[in-house]
Specification:
six-stranded mixed β-sheet, GTP binding, GIMA/IAN/Toc, alpha/beta, 369 residues, elongated, 52% helix, GTP-binding, P-loop_NTPase, binds guanosine-5'-diphosphate, G_AIG1, binds magnesium ion
Amino acid sequence: MGGSSVTDDLEVTTNEAGTLVLLGSPGTSRLFDFSGEPEVIGKEVTTNEARTLVLLGRTGNGKSTTGNSILGRKAFTSKYSSAGVTSTCELQSTRLDDGLTVNVIDTPGLFDFSGEHEVIGKEIVKCMDLAKDGIHAALLVLSVRTRFSREEQAAIQSFQEFFGEKIRDYMVFVFTGGDELEDNDQSLDDYLGNECPEPLKETIKMCDNRLVLFDNKTKDPKKKTDQLIEVLSLVNLVLEKNGGVPYTNELFKELQALKANSLIGDSKHMIDELKEPVPRSYEEQLSRLTENVTSKFMGITSKLLEQWAIERADRVAAELKGKADQEKIEGGLHELREQLERAKHENEISRGQLERAKHENAKSSCHIL
Ligand SMILES: Nc1nc2c(ncn2[C@@H]2O[C@H](COP(=O)(O)OP(=O)(O)O)[C@@H](O)[C@H]2O)c(=O)[nH]1
Ligand SMILES: [Mg+2]
């Protein structure tokens, strides 16, 4: 295994572990030639020459469109297409010129708290099922076109809690809307400096600043190539960091074991006829696994929503206290102003009296004179 191909300015090699290595100056490469249709292959490619990427993020952030940019074709339906929003996890693949297969799993907004828990549980299991041997990188898709909300922050938090701390080593942040930043003469750094809230900055830092800007609207083949190279380079960094081992967890393993057992169970069933019945059907076990996922997910989201409600209540209380303090200050100021007015008034009266006294005095002095 392993090999290399050299384009004008960029050397592409795959090492023994099948890791894609991009060398040379990006941007001038013709590695990903968008002039022709990329090779579309089957939906279940999991050799070591394959990379499985999962797109996650709030609905409308540009997951499906980014998936299409990576695949180089309209594989997933985007929000405003006639087919509507992505409603279920879906895997699509493409093979790059150097032979590397990229599997992209598009997801509905799994972590945006808008879906039903049962449906989300099912989708998480489906996503794991599609990923088969694991996830090489989780692409968290955010948009520079919409403000990063508290809800989105909670979604990222719930995602990390659900998959455990280890998932951070697999996370890559993709910001869509590069065209709009360009229109405003802004760079991603400018955007992050001005508009990125602290918690998001911290999360990105914890993920070794693996972030990339995507312009999914561009027609420029060079720009398309550059951003694809950039995201794949980040995936490469993730692979290096994790020794080429894709992300899996207990649920992944359970799902694999369940499928393996179901195959053994089926053959046993066939051989022994009904002598030794399979203890539980695959469907039953799968639905039990899905229930576990759903309840784990519900546990995490309800804890987060509770924490969120407490934070909000604290914030409202602090605001009210601030208001009350302000009112006190304003009340005090009002009182001071009144006292000042009174003092002024009294001062004027005294001055009047003084003037009058002076006048009287002058008059009496004249008399004396
Ligand atoms: N201007 C601009 N619009 C984008 C970009 N990426 C995605 N969109 C638009 O954002 C909307 C939502 O995208 P979609 O991929 O359906 O989001 P999803 O719900 O996360 O899958 C669509 O109208 C896309 O055309 C981008 O880079 N620039
Ligand atoms: Mg979508």
